Amino acid sequence: MTVALVTMSHSPLLGYADPPAEVNAAVQGAFSTARAFVEEYDPTLVVSFAPDHYNGFFYDLMPPFCIGYEALGVGDYGTAEGPLDVPAGRAGELAQWVAERDIDVAVSRRMEVDHGAVQPLEILFGGIDRVPTIPVFVNGVARPFVTMRRVRRLGEAIGGYLASLEDERVLVIGSGGLSHDPPVPQWATADDAARALLLNGRHPTAAARDARQQRVIDTAKAFAAGTATIRDLNPAWDTALMAVFASGDLSPVDAMTPEQMAEDAGNSAHEVRTWVAAFAALGAAGPYDVTYSFYRPIREYIAGFGVMTARTAG
Ligand SMILES: O=C(O)/C=C/c1cccc(O)c1O
Ligand SMILES: [Fe+2]
């Protein structure tokens, strides 16, 4: 049994914004390094922890966690549309294992996933159906949020299952974060039209999707120009959290609260829950070494942009 990890920020603006060439080269270099790490490891199974941005999960039924037995990319921001290669039997075993360890997870026999889950698979594998992948939704945008301790325990429970798979080389992916505050609507401040989207905005028309995406693209341009009203990135917060992940002792995340996280690092900083779950899963399989760490605050992408790779030691 071996387990390896890639955690990475995602940004739907990757194909829509134009940062300085040097920044773009640095990000592409980080992706190349992560890709080489994955190619060398050659995983037989991927467990992808990802949030959703009101493309697959809505307030008509919003679980904190969900394991997909089948999954489809929705194709937002030009990402791949269509089925992932989900090993349904393994996904069912995983859900049972986690339930037996007192963690309540929803399951979906038809999970719809957006750029949060799809982008890392495209970057690392060149597609969403190249390697058997179990998608695990971790709510990172829709209040209320479970405690960070709970997320860590979910990761540990999943890591325990992965460690039991003698015949697999498992890669866990955590997608999202770090500090960022993109204009994803929130229930408390949304108008009626936005609330309709948050409640049940599945399968929007092309025009509705374009309008929604254009708003984010325009905000990114304004943010880079220094004229947006969204919360700024917080490199100190981001790098301190990455140091916790690298240390192997995740207990400091238990003290993090949603209120303070939003205050310090923006309303989408909750996406780091996917990193917590991924590192906790890796740590449950044994001590690990971080083999690569990249960080840049990139306003054009509305993202404190981090990439880390790690694997069980020895
Ligand atoms: O869902 C959207 O429209 C935008 C999401 C977004 C924007 C910027 C950075 C991110 O990590 C996002 O998920
Ligand atoms: Fe996101």
Automatic annotation (TrEMBL):
Pathway involvement of the protein, from the record: Aromatic compound metabolism; 3-phenylpropanoate degradation
Active site: H115 (proton donor), H180 (proton acceptor)
An example Gene Ontology molecular-function term: 3-carboxyethylcatechol 2,3-dioxygenase activity
Keywords: Aromatic hydrocarbons catabolism, Dioxygenase, Iron, Oxidoreductase
InterPro entries the record matches: DHPP/DHXA_dioxygenase, Xdiol_dOase_suB
GO biological process, one term: 3-phenylpropionate catabolic process
Domain of life: Bacteria
Any Pfam family matching the protein: LigB
Listed EC numbers: 1.13.11.16
Keyword Iron: yes
Cofactor(s) in the UniProt record: Fe(2+)
Catalysed reactions listed for this entry: 3-(2,3-dihydroxyphenyl)propanoate + O2 = (2Z,4E)-2-hydroxy-6-oxonona-2,4-dienedioate + H(+); (2E)-3-(2,3-dihydroxyphenyl)prop-2-enoate + O2 = (2Z,4E,7E)-2-hydroxy-6-oxonona-2,4,7-trienedioate + H(+)
Extradiol ring-cleavage dioxygenase class III enzyme subunit B domain segment(s): 6-288
Similarity-based family: Belongs to the LigB/MhpB extradiol dioxygenase family.
Subunit structure comment from the entry: Homotetramer.
Function: Catalyzes the non-heme iron(II)-dependent oxidative cleavage of 2,3-dihydroxyphenylpropionic acid and 2,3-dihydroxicinnamic acid into 2-hydroxy-6-ketononadienedioate and 2-hydroxy-6-ketononatrienedioate, respectively.
Protein name in the entry: 2,3-dihydroxyphenylpropionate/2,3-dihydroxicinnamic acid 1,2-dioxygenase
Taxonomic source organism: Streptomyces nitrosporeus
Gene this protein is translated from: mhpB
